[in-house]
Amino acid sequence: MKITKIAIAALVALSFTATAQNGDEIIKKHIDAIGGEANWNKVKSLKLTGTMNMQGMEIPMTRTVVDGKGVRIEFDVMGSSNYMIVTPNGGWSFMPIQGMDKPTAMPEEQVKQMAKQLTIKNTVLADRAQIGKAEYAGMDTLEKTPCYKVKITNKDGLSNTCYFDANNYYMVRVETRANVNGEEQEVGMTFSNFQRQPEGVVLAMTETLPGGMEQNHKSVEINKPVKDDLFVVEAEKK
For the domain that residue 97 is a member of, what is the CATH number? Predict the structure, then answer.
C-alpha cells in the first residue's frame, strides 16, 4: 500500500496537534525555551548592533533599550546619522534623510506603536501578567516549519496571534492589528536565527518587519551601562 505525501503530512500535523493541550501550556513551554522568566527579569538593558536591509541597501543600525525607560534606534544612510527615540513621555525623530534639520515630535500613533519596544521582553513575556486568555488556534506552517498558533488576548481586549515552532517552542511570528496610514491592518513580524546568550536568554538575531525590511543583529550587549541622556533629543541636551 502506497502512502501519499499528503497522508504523511497529515499524520505529522496530527502528532503535533496531539501534544498541544492548550494555549497556556504552549506559552509556558515557550518561556522555558527562551531562558525562563527569572533570567529575563534580570535583563535591564539591551543593545543590538547590526544592519537593516531595506530596498537592497544594507544600513548600519543600533537599537538600545533600557527596560521601561527608553528605546533609541540609530541608523546611518548616505553619510547622515538618523535616530528615533521613544520614552514613556513621548517620541521624537531626527531624520536628515527625510530633509529634517531638527528633532521632531512623532505622531501619536507612531509613538503608540514604538512604545511596545520600551520593554525588552518579547510579546508573550511582556504581556504575561496581563494575559486574559490564551487560545490554541490550531496548526499552521511557516517556511515548511510546523507551528502552533495561539491567540493571546490581554485584559484590555487587545490581541496578538503568535506562531510557535512546534519543534522548540521559539516564537517565529507575531501578528497584530495596527493603524497604518489611517487604516486598521494586520501587521506581522517574523523571527529567526535564534541564539542563546551567556546570560541564559535566547534572542532572535534576525527580525523581518512588514514590507520585507530585515534587521540582522550581529552583536548583543546585555546589562551594560547606558547614559541617561541617550534618550534625550539633542536639541534639549544641556
Answer: 2.50.20.10
